[in-house]
Amino acid sequence: MIDNNIGKKVLDKVSKECDKLKEFELKDSSEVDDSYKCFGDSNKLQLYSYHRSSCSFRVRIAFNLKGLDYEYKAVNLLKGEQYNPEFLKINPIGFVPALVDGDVVIADSFAILMYLEEKYPQHPLLPRDLEKRAINYQAANIVSASIQPLQNLAVLNYIEEKVGPDAKLAWAQKHIGKGFAALEKLLEKHAGKYATGDDVYLADVFLAPQVHGSVQRFNLDMTQYPTLSRVHEAYMQLPAFQNALPENQPDYPSS
Ligand SMILES: N[C@@H](CCC(=O)N[C@@H](CS)C(=O)NCC(=O)O)C(=O)O
């Protein structure tokens, strides 16, 4: 009697062995490369992203810095695709970005970045120096917890509806300005070519999208923030940042 499931059983076994191999090699190697793609593209990382989303932009920069190939899955926030039942299965709160890595599903840019950092240690996002590392967390959290949530689409739509269209821009500028003033003070002491020295780290991955969006979408006057302006200019010279820009994404509108 022939077992029709034999092929599947063999594949499952090979897949498990492959996962074990990944775990083993990750402990011992600081270099992670394409050899981890055991079954070619079936294991390709997928990023649910929207071109204009600053949170997605952060993850795109990290992918580029770490040299990771990924599949871009567009979620059009202006069309409300974040509320599609299929997407809500991936991220029940209805926000991008979300990462799918085989059976692993992670939403929230900070969690995704920490996952990528541990799984793909090449081009570390966290410096070894303890103080510098803490400053990176502080700057990243000012952006992700004290600025971006206050200028998120859902919040701005609510303000527009309850208060009026004019209030929206003033609200965004006020809260971004408060956060940028704090970042400027923090980083004037720590910045080199980039936010915390002459290498790109986590703080830079959060800062670049926030500055870019603040200028493009909210017309923010950056003259009061010379350090932020200077490091932002430096980011725009780097391919990893340029390629992550909204206008270089497949879902950026053609006209
Ligand atoms: N803490 C989350 C925030 C995610 C978030 O707010 N994403 C925005 C785009 S940057 C979004 O999906 N907004 C959709 C909406 O407000 O409906 C993260 O860092 O990923």
From TrEMBL:
Residues 43-124 form the GST N-terminal domain. GO terms for cellular component: cytoplasm. The keyword Transferase applies. It catalyses: RX + glutathione = an S-substituted glutathione + a halide anion + H(+). One of its GO terms (molecular function) is maleylacetoacetate isomerase activity. Its EC number is 2.5.1.18. GO terms for biological process: glutathione metabolic process; L-phenylalanine catabolic process; toxin catabolic process. PROSITE patterns: GST_CTER (PS50405), GST_NTER (PS50404). Pfam families: GST_C_3, GST_N. It is an enzyme of class 2 (transferase). Belongs to the GST superfamily. Zeta family. This is glutathione transferase. It comes from Artemisia annua.
